[in-house]
Design goal:
Shape: globular
CATH topology of the largest domain: Ribosomal Protein S5, domain 2
EC number: 2.7.1.6
Largest sheet: 8 strands, mixed
Keywords: ATP-binding, Carbohydrate metabolism, Galactose metabolism, Kinase, Magnesium, Metal-binding, Nucleotide-binding, Transferase
Number of domains: 2
Protein name: Galactokinase
Bound molecules: adenosine-5'-diphosphate, magnesium ion
Distance between the termini: 6 Å
Oligomer: single chain
Number of helices: 9
Helix content: 25-40%
GO biological process, one term: galactose metabolic process
InterPro entries: Galactokinase (IPR000705), Galactokinase_CS (IPR019741), GalKase_N (IPR019539), GHMP_kinase_C_dom (IPR013750), GHMP_kinase_C_sf (IPR036554), GHMP_kinase_N_dom (IPR006204), GHMP_knse_ATP-bd_CS (IPR006203), Mevalonate/galactokinase (IPR006206)
Length: about 350
């Protein structure tokens, strides 16, 4: 028996660094992703080979601590195995292969795609939200990064032709149709980064300290933010609070096909991530500035956690710019192949 599981990557149209404080995000699942083909066998080792790395992952089904496993990418597989086991699954060993059409470490969530496809291939059941939550815990365990739910939930809950308005506190997913006149292009800055060891953890800590002063950032208004005495924490909170507003407004702009307004919100989001949240880089700023001056581009911004990775541009249909044209796609799926 071969089980084939596929998970898309995702691009976030707007709403970065809002998920872990229970805010709003607006990603879409991509038409590129990761496939895991797995054959269960009477063994206690899950062995997977990836076309992205010559060293295979060989994970014992009773693995406890994923953080020391080599090669490093196998930690994500181990994280999934640990979380499946603690959710009560009886995991079989076996062998399999991983192929991907996603760039790794570029901000398109190859890590979530790997976790979700692996979890489904190893037998995870349940709703899109349940699988996403299990995989989020797996990523936290594997990488030590206290990531939010966006990446995994966008991968499991994707809807063809739609962006996903996700409320990360209520854990609801509201598909918003992408108007016909708009296309999404992802442009790689070429500056790749790993979230592991990045200032992501510091940013998250800043948000928690800001919330100690004014309460949950999700409930805060712009006026509350100005009460924070510390300049750095005030700017961090200002980004989160204003970004939540922009996401809600952007979903509305999509619904009413107000593409100019949608683009303007993306440009504002980039400025906020650059100046208040300080997660951009000179290369990303230069790329985004150039895109925002290009005819046919409604708006562009860095996407994902920042510190390198990709920019996303929303453009008038037919506009030619260098980059990867992406289409909003359905979420992860699994099937059994004969053989
Ligand atoms: P992103 O999720 O934006 O691509 P991350 O830094 O979160 O960036 O995750 C990238 C890491 O995930 C890679 O360095 C690698 O360890 C792992 N990874 C993702 N997809 C694969 C794959 N198909 N094969 C092997 N490792 C992968
Ligand atoms: Mg990732």
């Amino acid at each position: 028996m071969i089980i084939e599981a596929y998970s898309p990557g995702r691009v976030n149209l707007i709403g970065d660094h809002t998920d872990y404080s229970g805010g709003l995000v607006l990603p879409m699942a991509l038409d590129t992703g990761t496939t895991v083909r797995f054959s269960p066998l009477p063994t206690t080792t899950v062995t997977l080979r990836s076309d992205a790395d010559p060293a295979p992952a060989a994970i014992e089904t009773d693995v406890v601590d994923p953080t020391t496993i080599q090669p490093a990418w196998a930690r994500y597989v181990a994280g999934v195995v640990v979380e499946l086991r603690s959710a009560g699954y009886d995991i079989s060993g076996g062998t399999g292969s991983i192929t991907t059409t996603l760039p790794l470490g570029a901000g398109l969530s190859s890590s979530a795609a790997l976790e979700v496809a692996t979890a489904l291939a190893l037998g995870a059941l349940g709703s899109a939200l349940e699988v996403a939550q299990l995989c989020r815990r797996a990523e936290q365990l594997a990488s030590g990064v206290p990531c939010g739910i966006m990446d995994q939930l966008a991968a499991t809950a994707g809807v063809q032709g739609c962006a996903l308005l996700i409320d990360c506190r209520l854990l609801t997913v509201d598909p918003v149709r992408i108007p016909d006149g708009l296309e999404v292009v992802v442009i790689d800055s070429g500056e790749h980064r790993a979230l592991v060891g990045s200032p992501y953890v510091e940013r998250r800590a800043d948000c928690e300290r800001a919330a100690d002063v004014i309460g949950p950032l999700r409930d805060a208004a712009r006026g509350d933010v100005e009460r924070i005495p510390d300049d750095r924490l005030r700017r961090r909170a200002r980004h989160v609070v204003s970004e939540n507003e922009r996401v809600a407004e952007a979903a509305d702009a999509l619904r009413t096909a107000d593409l100019q307004r949608f683009g303007r919100l993306l440009r504002e989001s980039h400025r906020s991530l650059r100046d208040d949240f300080e997660v951009s880089t000179p290369a990303l700023d230069a790329l985004v500035d150039e895109l925002n001056c290009t005819t046919g581009v409604f708006g562009a911004r860095l996407t994902g956690a920042g510190f390198g990775g990709c920019a996303v541009a929303v453009v008038e249909r037919g506009t030619v710019i260098a980059g990867r044209r992406v289409h909003a796609s359905a979420g992860a799926r699994v099937r059994e192949l004969k053989g």
